[in-house]
Write a structure and sequence with these properties.
- The protein is built from eight helices and 17 strands.
- The chain is α+β, with helices and mostly antiparallel strands.
- The protein folds into two domains: about 190 residues, Fructose-1,6-Bisphosphatase, subunit A, domain 1 (Fructose-1,6-Bisphosphatase, Chain A, domain 1, 2-Layer Sandwich); about 140 residues, D-Maltodextrin-Binding Protein, domain 2.
- Strand 1 and strand 2 form a beta hairpin.
- The protein binds manganese (II) ion (2 copies).
């Protein structure tokens, strides 16, 4: 029997951009061009990542990045791909990468434009050798008026100033998820034609969830409000929440956020007492801010526990922040626990819970 071949009617990402551009009365196309180049960088990285050990690019690069983390070959390669693909287009004034201490100016050979690009070329790269989903994260800012040679200061803008944010996830399928400030939309890479197709329009994070993600091995470093939240969740039906919860931990921010966008949930890398110099694990400009915008645009919340992530005034390019994001009801609950704790209000449950009892042992 002959198979019926149907014409793909869902918009390509190009169609989506142009439709958005026509909606903005004074759009010049510069912005569309920036996102287009990012898309190409993600496709190039998807190809290399998808080759795995065949690419010869796996393993440690034998170097460290500015934050003292081990660089994988693919971290360095993905960064080079981002630079090569985005520097020439004429619409950017500068770039900031997780892998580079200082901002990268657009070389003199190319025209400069009104936007700044901030990115994590390969997120979750410690997972790459075990074939777990990794991704790229990006944020687009406006270059301050009159600035042609942007320095670090020009990139230190709160997340509310982002004009676009997104990530690519290199999993069983490659997807690009992005927001231009009007909802969050997911595109799946059709490898047969090399184009992203709009498969997940208007992604929404459900307000309620019974799933949370946290690195529980850090329990002893958590602050009391986070200990309280997790303790209540793991007590399940018998506890104050009256309901059983599931826990997840992939250790890949992109994969965690993607799961939350698809089916809801809560992700936490909270403030902890492990290292006083680091009030969090994730970086504000190219991890927390873009993910916060994506999650908010999908109806979710993103917080430090003590305030909206997107409103933080950055003080350094590679600044770290606590991140609590996902389903609205749960993020608001954790913010309430922080407020109560800071105001000296004791949780209404029996005190021993928070002293003698840990996540995995019963009192
Ligand atoms: Mn990262
Ligand atoms: Mn990275």
């Amino acid at each position: 029997m002959r198979e019926t071949i149907r014409v793909e009617t869902r918009p390509t990402i190009t169609e989506f951009f142009l439709t958005e551009q026509r909606r903005a009365p004074h759009a010049t196309g510069a912005f569309t061009a920036v996102i287009n180049d990012i898309r190409l960088a993600c496709k190039r990285i998807a190809h290399v990542v998808g080759q795995g050990a065949l690419s010869g690019a796996t393993g440690a690069a034998g170097s460290q990045n500015v934050q003292g983390e081990t660089q994988m070959h693919l971290d360095v390669l993905a960064d080079e791909i981002f630079v090569r693909t985005n520097e020439w287009g004429g619409h950017l004034a500068g770039l900031v990468s997780e892998e580079r201490e200082e901002p990268l100016l657009i070389p003199g050979a190319f025209p400069r434009g009104p936007y700044l690009l901030v990115y994590d070329p390969l997120d979750g790269s410690s997972n790459i050798d075990v074939n777990v989903s990794v991704g790229s994260i990006f944020s687009v800012l406006r270059c301050p008026e009159g600035v042609t040679e942007p320095g670090a200061r020009d990139f230190l803008q709160p997340g509310t100033k982002q004009v676009a944010a997104g990530y690519a996830i290199y999993g069983p399928t490659t997807m690009l998820v992005l927001t231009l400030g009007r909802g969050t939309h997911g595109f799946t890479l059709d490898r047969s034609i090399g184009e992203f197709i709009l498969t997940h329009p208007d992604m929404m994070v459900p307000a309620a969830t019974r799933e949370f993600a946290i690195n529980a091995s850090n329990e002893r470093f958590w602050e009391p409000p986070v200990r309280r939240y997790v303790a209540e969740c793991v007590q399940g039906k018998a506890g104050p929440r009256g309901s059983d919860f599931n826990m997840r931990w992939i250790a890949s921010l992109v994969a965690e956020v993607h799961r939350i966008l698809v089916r809801g949930g809560l992700f936490m890398y909270p403030r902890d007492t492990k290292d006083a110099a680091k009030p969090g694990r994730l970086r504000l400009l190219y991890e927390a801010n873009p993910m916060a915008m994506i999650v908010e645009q999908a109806g979710g919340c993103a917080s430090t526990g003590r305030g909206r992530l997107l409103e933080i005034e950055p003080s350094a390019l590679h600044q770290r922040v606590p991140v609590i994001l996902g389903s609205r009801d749960e993020v608001e609950r954790i913010e309430r626990y922080h407020r109560d704790h800071d105001a000296g209000v004791e949780p209404p449950t029996s005190p021993p819970l928070f002293h003698d009892r840990s996540l995995f042992t019963k009192a």
